[in-house]
């Protein structure tokens, strides 16, 4: 059987070593004779596991002591609603910087809970990020929200928006732990797990402590940061297996050299693929070079029939999930932390062969 490389945007591939580890102890976790899915989430062994998981995650991201780390449910979409309910209770409005589908979706959801001003930060007609200095107006808002990596279009924002003393919020679902950041520059960072952290079903929220305790009265307890923080993210039964797998991913990343090493590998993988695209006569990437995502590489032949042929033949060769999102079409190679460089090399080899045969 051809070796399979999974380029899915999410749920995405996980490190093979992590899956093998989970497989080995699936039926007998911590010598308990049961799986981690069958033990009490408030029992000694599970509590020890989640305590270590948070410690490892904090080490990976150098998270300051004045930040809480919550392991929640509901995905990033849940946080689209949770944010205004927890944060937009002083000035009563939020500023959303949109750069694609997901940042716009977050703004739309938030508008059901607070007044939202939306600014498209892409230059007109281009997949290129323009001005990011909002320091003159940010003080008018309870928070400023942006999405540093748009998975659908493959646009990544590497510079921090300037928001003065305002609260900066980031949806890092698709680039968390892919490169180093300064957590202290943010009020809230949130991310669905299913791309770089683990399986779908758990969401990490990093929130500065002074922002906790401001939720409006009608906020459901499951979305209330204060309630969740006081209850170890477990006001109800959490997704225990997903949490466990995240804990294994954190250990694996630390063993591999941490986020610094992941960033180095991710830059190398992305550069290989973009360099090939730039010299190709068949494939095209239309994102401005300074905003090309390290995680999601989009490309097209500008021919729908040829795109479909490419995806079908690639799949037959073990290169899975390369079809672009329905919003954009074309192709998309998601090359998250778990994707080895061999996967990118195999993709380029196939692309080169396909180009020769379809010129």
From TrEMBL:
One of its GO terms (molecular function) is pyridoxal phosphate binding. One of its GO terms (biological process) is L-serine biosynthetic process. Its cofactor is pyridoxal 5'-phosphate. InterPro entries: Aminotrans_V_dom, Aminotrans_V_PyrdxlP_BS, Pser_aminoTfrase, PyrdxlP-dep_Trfase, PyrdxlP-dep_Trfase_major, PyrdxlP-dep_Trfase_small. Its EC number is 2.6.1.52. Binds 1 pyridoxal phosphate per subunit. It comes from the Bacteria. It is an enzyme of class 2 (transferase). L-glutamate binds at residue 42. Pyridoxal 5'-phosphate binds at residues 76-77, 102, 151, 171, 194, 236-237. It is found in: Cytoplasm. GO terms for cellular component: cytoplasm. Catalyzes the reversible conversion of 3-phosphohydroxypyruvate to phosphoserine and of 3-hydroxy-2-oxo-4-phosphonooxybutanoate to phosphohydroxythreonine. HAMAP family: SerC_aminotrans_5. Homodimer. This is Phosphoserine aminotransferase. It comes from Canicola haemoglobinophilus. The gene is serC.
């Amino acid at each position: 059987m051809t070796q399979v490389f999974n380029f899915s945007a999410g749920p995405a591939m996980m490190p093979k070593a992590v899956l093998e580890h989970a497989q080995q102890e699936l039926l007998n976790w911590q010598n308990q004779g049961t799986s981690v899915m069958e033990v009490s989430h408030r029992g000694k062994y599970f509590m020890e596991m989640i305590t270590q998981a948070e410690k490892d995650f904090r080490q990976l991201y150098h998270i300051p002591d004045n930040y809480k780390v919550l392991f929640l449910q509901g995905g990033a979409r849940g946080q689209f609603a949770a944010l205004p309910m927890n944060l937009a209770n002083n000035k009563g409005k939020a500023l959303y910087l949109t750069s694609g589908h997901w940042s716009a979706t977050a703004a739309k959801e938030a508008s059901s809970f607070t007044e939202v001003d939306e600014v498209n930060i892409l230059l007109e007609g281009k997949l290129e990020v323009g001005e990011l200095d909002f320091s003159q107006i940010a003080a008018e808002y309870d928070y400023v929200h942006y999405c540093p990596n748009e998975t659908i279009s493959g646009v990544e924002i590497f510079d921090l928006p300037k928001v003065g003393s305002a609260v900066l919020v980031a949806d890092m679902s698709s680039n968390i732990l892919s490169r180093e950041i300064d957590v202290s520059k943010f009020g809230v960072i949130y991310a669905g797990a299913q791309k770089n952290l683990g399986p779908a079903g758990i969401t990490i929220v990093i929130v500065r402590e002074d922002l906790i305790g401001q939720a409006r009265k009608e906020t459901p307890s499951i979305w209330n940061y204060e309630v969740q923080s006081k209850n170890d993210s477990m006001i109800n039964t959490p997704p225990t297996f997903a949490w466990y797998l995240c804990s294994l991913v954190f250990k694996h990343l630390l063993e591999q050299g941490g986020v610094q090493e992941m960033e180095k590998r991710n830059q190398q993988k992305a550069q290989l693929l973009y360099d090939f695209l730039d010299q190709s006569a068949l494939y095209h990437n239309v994102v401005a070079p300074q905003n090309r995502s390290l995680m999601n590489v989009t490309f097209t032949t500008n021919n729908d029939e040829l795109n479909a042929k490419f995806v079908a033949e690639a799949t037959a060769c073990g290169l899975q999930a390369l079809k672009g999102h329905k919003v954009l079409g074309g192709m998309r190679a998601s090359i998250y932390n778990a994707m080895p460089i061999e996967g990118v090399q195999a993709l380029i080899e196939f692309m080169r062969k396909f180009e020769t045969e379809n010129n």
